[in-house]
Design a protein that fits this description.
By secondary structure, this protein is α+β, with helices and mostly antiparallel strands. The protein contains one helix and five strands. The relative contact order is 0.23.
Length: 70
């Protein structure tokens, strides 16, 4: 199993708004009402971990990706 610190952070639609969820995690890290807040947090986590932030549309398609790996 890969170390969680190397896994991307995903912003996905959630029943309560938008969730920031580590790749492979069952539970979201946090849920936000506002998508931009979720994107900002996912980017911050990904930057700290040296991984990627993957932003999804409400339908689940990849909308954007920010890569912070060195």
């Amino acid at each position: 199993m890969a170390e969680s610190r190397n896994q991307a952070e995903h912003v996905v639609s959630h029943e309560d708004g938008w969730a920031v969820k580590a790749e492979g995690a069952e539970q979201p890290t946090k849920v936000y009402e506002n998508k931009q807040d979720a994107i900002d947090r996912a980017k911050e986590i990904a930057q700290n971990k040296g991984t990627s932030a993957v932003i999804h549309t409400k339908e689940g398609k990849i909308q954007n990706q920010y890569n912070y790996s060195s």
